[in-house]
Design goal:
It contains four helices and no strands. It is mainly α. The two termini are about 15 Å apart.
């Protein structure tokens, strides 16, 4: 459980950057990895929803290219953490 909280917090830090609009496909895929790990770890549904909102807010602050790169990197890290 500590591992998933660390991943959730890291994802928030990863996504603190610039400005943009809607969430790219790569970020949706990254969120799916996070959500799956959170559910597997027994994180409460309301905590997952709150984290998703924070994730989307941070992604939407970035320009599209930056968001795509950050989310690709994050997905790679999450894949290794499985």
């Amino acid at each position: 459980m500590k591992k998933i909280y660390l991943i959730l917090m890291t994802s928030s830090l990863f996504l603190s950057a610039c400005s943009g609009s809607s969430m790219p496909k790569e970020c949706e895929e990254s969120w799916q990895h996070i959500e799956k790990m959170a559910k597997t770890s027994g994180i409460p549904e309301d905590a997952i929803k709150n984290q998703k909102k924070a994730f989307e807010d941070e992604v939407n602050k970035m320009n599209k290219e930056e968001a795509i790169q950050v989310c690709k990197t994050q997905s790679s890290i999450l894949s290794m953490a499985k």
